[in-house]
Design goal:
The chain is an alpha+beta fold. The chain contains 3 helices and 4 strands; from the N terminus they run H-H-E-E-H-E-E. It has helices at residues 2-39, 47-60, 94-106; strands at residues 64-73, 82-92, 115-129, 132-144. Helix 2 (47-60) packs antiparallel against helix 3 (94-106). It is elongated. The model has no long low-confidence stretch (mean pLDDT 83).
Length: 145
């Protein structure tokens, strides 16, 4: 009987060890996922670099870029999010503006940042010039840490 009880105890210890290793693996996977999630929030000290990247994307897509307004909101409790708001103007043709928007949504700043387009207004310019035939005003919200 003592041998049987010892074997049962060893079997339970083996099961606990297997369970512990599985939990440890799950914990590490969750930690990695959490690090990825934290990386999508822009740090406020990176805001200037982010704006510079938007300017670069505008230039690469053949648009003229101007920041109209910028602001930030800092959360006062856990149920609110902190964010940076930008109101930008772009001048270009339709395909160039679409290219800018695609870049904005896909990967505006390595790594990808959590962005929300709040408002987009497009108007045709009376006279096509070097800037293009459209002016687009975009209000975006970039979530921050």
């Amino acid at each position: 009987m003592a041998i049987l009880a010892g074997q049962e105890s060893l079997a339970r210890l083996d099961q606990r060890e297997i369970l512990f290793k599985e939990l440890e693996k799950d914990y590490q996977e969750k930690q990695d996922a959490l690090a990825d999630i934290e990386g999508i929030f822009l740090k406020l000290q990176e805001a200037v670099g982010f704006i510079s990247t938007l300017e670069t994307i505008a230039a690469q897509t053949g648009n003229i870029f101007e920041i109209k307004t910028a602001g930030s909101f800092t959360a006062s409790n856990e149920n609110e999010e902190s964010y940076l708001t930008l109101c930008i103007s772009l001048w270009g043709n339709f395909s160039n503006i679409l290219a800018f928007l695609a870049n904005l949504e896909d990967s505006p700043y390595p790594p990808y940042r959590l962005i929300e387009i709040e408002n987009l207004t497009m108007r045709r310019l009376d006279k096509q010039g070097a800037e293009g035939d459209l002016e687009v005003v975009i209000s975006i919200k970039i979530y921050t840490q």
